[in-house]
Amino acid sequence: MLSGLSGKLALVAGAGSGIGKTVALKLAAHDCKVGLFDLNKEGLEKTKSEVTSAGGSCETFLGDISNREHVQCAVDGVTSHFEMAPSIGINCAGITRDAMLLKMTDDQWDSIISCHLKGSFLFTQILARQMVKAKISGSIVNTGSISGKIGNTGQANYSAAKAGIIAFSKATARELAPKGIRCNTVVPGFINTPMANAIPPHIKQMVLMMTPMGRFGETTEIADLYCFLASESSSYITGVDIEVAGGLAM
User: Fold this and answer.
1) How many CB atoms lie within 10 A of CB 42?
2) Potential cystine with 213: which of 98, 186, 240, 246 (Cβ 3.0-4.6 Å)?
3) Which tens digit of pLDDT belongs to each residue from 38-57?
């Protein structure tokens, strides 16, 4: 077991599918109480069913991470339900609106920046305020992307947002370290998730050719890193971005 997870309360955004779902299940297996936050109601219920059937404790919160009121309600709700403030925040919420730059619309740009970059801001700020109010130390882990480091064709919006998250988390790490709150970023490569399944076959093939390990990753191969960064086993780590990308950015 990782140090210092048992009995803690975590709020996981994007818990309805993909990486967020796997992280929520892993945290519950480490005896964390887990708040599940997502816009996907059906996905939330499936995740809750899997957590509870494995003997874990969780509650669901339906909402949009780019909406301040929704995030505030999730943080207040999980605090009220479990009668304790969350000391762990995992943000895996995300969408794609891919288009080539010359054809990208304002809506495609704005929706990605809102979900990923504004969402990370709201999630981190509101959770950190709750931790400070409760006078507890904590760990917040946001999700970048290898696209935010090397760029990706058809993803100028997504690449920009993910690069922003990496810088944002470093800045917040500096501000929040004196308050006992750590902020880090996991930087996935191409992982087998519902989002990745929507990538056109010819783009997938191009990615595979660029990836030294020659395959997409699995959510189980990345979830343990989130749990490590959430735990006290990483108590002297803050402001870092860690790639899990099969060597794609080498």
Assistant:
1) 10
2) 246
3) 999 999 999 999 999 999 99
What domains are defined for the chain?
Answer: 9-244 (3.40.50.720)
By annotation, the residues acting in catalysis are 158
The percent of residues in the chain predicted with pLDDT above 70, rounded, is: 100
Task: Cite the DSSP H helix spans in 151-247.
Answer: 156-176, 194-197, 201-210, 220-230
Judging by beta carbons within 10 Å of its beta carbon (0-12, 13-18, 19+), is residue 196 exposed, middle or buried? Answer: middle
The whole-model pTM stands at 0.95
Contact 90, 118 (CB under 8 A): no
- CA end-to-end span of the chain: 31
Cα–Cα nearest to 130, from 202, 65, 78 = 78
Structure tokens at 220: 């189980």
For residue 109, CA distances in Å to 67, 95, 106 come to: 17, 12, 5
Contacts of 97 (CB under 8 A, 6+ apart): 107, 108, 109, 111, 112, 157, 158
